[in-house]
Amino acid sequence: MASVPQIDLDNLTTSPTADEALEAWYKRNPPLADTDANPWDVSRAELYSKDLWRKPFAEMREKAPINKITGGVHGDFWNVTTYKPIQHVEALPDIYSSDVSHGGITIADPEFGDDFQLPMFIAMDRPKHTGQRRTVAPAFTPTEMQRMEKEIRQRTAEVLDSLPWGEKFDWVDKVSIELTTGMLAILFGFPWEDRRLLTYWSDWAGDVELSVAEDLTEQRQQILYEMGAYFTRLWNERVDAEPTPDLISMMIHSEHMRDMDPMEFMGNLVLLIVGGNDTTRNTMSGVAFGLSQFPEEREKLQQNPDLIPNAVQEIIRWQTPLAHMRRTALEDHDLFGNQIKKGDKVVLWYISANRDEEVFPEADKIKVDRENARRHLAFGYGIHRCVGARLAELQIRILLEEMHKRRMQVNPTGKHRRVHACFVHGFRELEVELSKY
To answer: Which of 209, 267, 191, 279 is nearest to 4 (CA)?
Structure first.
């Protein structure tokens, strides 16, 4: 493993967080009110932080499920908003590329420049994608899920038992972040006392809005170098050791990943950290917030715990923790009558497809017994379907089961703050109180 720039690992800082840095940047550079903004430019972050995204997507699904935006916040792109065409695009990876060399997987174009590219297997095309995905896939097999279930349940129980009853607290910090960050630490064999670094790095790596704040690029790059240096130390400590089940060891002992250059190593770390942290974290917050919005469904689940596995799928569908994935056309293509040109940016809005009424009747509602909840597209579709989907489902199922054992009802107080972004969809803060049912 080649080295990244020299980093003082004994003096890492976690201040400011990505959220704090971006908030300060917006204060220095207040956005002008754009009265001419295209209402279908759903890349605008305020639609998600203000929870205003449902209306424009509903209009598009009804009037123009596939449409082109020109001059949007993130340039020109195609919106793909309904279920069937998203599946269709995902099933054609040789036409619609995920590779970072063509633009990658988010609506924001890579902002670091050619000298700081972060290849990761989700942002690769075949055949390289296949080999690297196969390297980490054994960490998420049904056998591995069975092996980890006891430990996940024990940790979940400890976290829930530490919560105050009848007092206000932040569910995101005390539950969602704590559980997912702890799970990542176990997966990587990461030092437990430093586990919150994983959350810090995840936010700096995964926030698409940071691409807008050009004067934060150098700071963001330095933080990602610090992440790379920390993990390189772990790599070097294990490179001559016997294989173990952690992801770093799997990479070391894989023909497809053991000779990664530093940038590719960092890219795959970003993928695994953001994929394992932000997505499950925001679904766990969706458990608390979403069920409170539909008290009859919450009561149905409380009285029928056998519905928990299905409710997991339904809450993932309803929350959709990653709003979109981006593809880039490698050739001209007719997409259901729409003429996509080579080089066009095609954005697959999972958050909209999971509200497609033709597939999910009363799609804006959580229905814990929804018959086809498992058909959601929150994990993607095709060769890039989330490799860690089983682990996410397991963590959320155990959370609901352990809440049921304690007859724990989570009651949001009304104070909450959503992620200001069009990629990661979730909560920065969610104040709640607990009660028994």
So the answer is: 267
Beta-strand ranges (E) seen in 294-375 are 324-329, 333-335, 338-340, 345-349
Q: 3-state class of 108 per DSSP?
A: coil
pLDDT at 167: 97
**Distance (Å, whole) CA 412 – CA 182:** 24
Closest residue by Cα to residue 288 from 158, 174, 167, 151: 174
Residue 202's Cβ-side half-sphere holds a number of Cα atoms within 13 Å equal to: 22
* DSSP state string for 127-156: THHHHHHHHHGGGGSHHHHHHHHHHHHHHH
d(CA 268, CA 408): 37
- Which residues sit opposite 72 in a β-bridge? 75
Statement: residue 63 has pLDDT above 80: yes
Q: Per-residue confidence at 206, pLDDT binned at 50, 70, 90?
A: confident
Higher pLDDT, 320 or 73: 320
Give pLDDT, residue 182: 92
Could you tell me which of 80, 145, 129 has the C-alpha nearest to residue 382? Answer: 129
Helix (H, G, I), strand (E, B) or coil at 401: helix
Angstrom distances, CA of residue 242 to CA of 144, 170, 245, 255, 303: 19, 41, 10, 16, 48
What structural domains does the chain harbor?
41-436 (1.10.630.10)
Smallest Cα–Cα separation from 179: which of 63, 282, 301, 330?
282
> Does 224 or 163 have the greater pLDDT score?
163
Read off the pLDDT of each residue in 2-7 and give the average, rounded to a whole number.
58
CA-closest candidate to residue 60, choices 37, 34, 82, 36: 82
Q: Which two tokens stand for residue 161?
A: 């038992």
- What predicted TM-score, i.e. pTM, was given to this entire model? 0.91
Among 96, 181, 82, 42, CA closest to 384: 96
CB atoms within 10 A of CB 34: 10
How many helices (DSSP H) and strands (DSSP E) are in the chain? Answer: 16, 10
